């Protein structure tokens, strides 16, 4: 009897260790992924499926334990990097605007003082527009004169010399360039009007001032520009 008791005690002592050893064995998993439009599952992941999106399922419970996304291609990694960079740039712009708003609130106690900040910028753009308009008009008139002279020569039977032909081509190319410059300056002026109106609106909002009733933001920007 004592021997049986000792045997039972020994078995009881060994049971927890055996169970612990059994629990330490790696749990079997099933891997499931799509291949050729079909759902494929296996207890071993073949090399060709390593980079594919898959679900990992416990063989014991049949429950999904995790999901692994597909490995990104070079293009996808480059796109992800670009998107992250753009996100950082956008966040930096938000932070900069917040600091600018705080500085603007402290630096310009009145709207008139804030308006003076844009006087030089609007003046430069307006002068550029006036100069480009003058250049376009002058070049067009000169080109018309050259074309008329060349036409008169052809009608009279005289040849149009290479010097005049080259002059016509050069003046025409310069006219096209000046037109592009004029369009660019005019676009900058419109964008500046929008920027001024936006800053004015934000300044008034920070100051807790009511929106003006008689004059809109765009009209105020235009009125300021007309004084230059």
What does this structure look like?
- The protein has 228 residues and is α+β, with helices and mostly antiparallel strands.
- It has a domain at 101-220.
- It is 68% helix and 10% strand.
- The protein has helices spanning 2-23, 74-107, 111-116, 119-155, 162-207, 217-226, and strands at 29-35, 38-42, 54-58, 64-68.
- The longest helix is centred in the last third of the chain and has 46 residues, at 162-207.
What is the topological layout?
Elements: H1 2-23, E1 29-35, E2 38-42, E3 54-58, E4 64-68, H2 74-107, H3 111-116, H4 119-155, H5 162-207, H6 217-226
Low-confidence blocks of residues: 1-9, 213-218
According to DSSP, the number of beta strands is 4
The helix count comes to 6
Counting helices, strands and paired strands, the structural category is alpha+beta
Quick one: biggest sheet? 4 strands, antiparallel
In short:
The longest helix is centred in the C-terminal third of the chain and has 46 residues, at 162-207. The protein has helices at residues 2-23, 74-107, 111-116, 119-155, 162-207, 217-226, and strands at residues 29-35, 38-42, 54-58, 64-68.
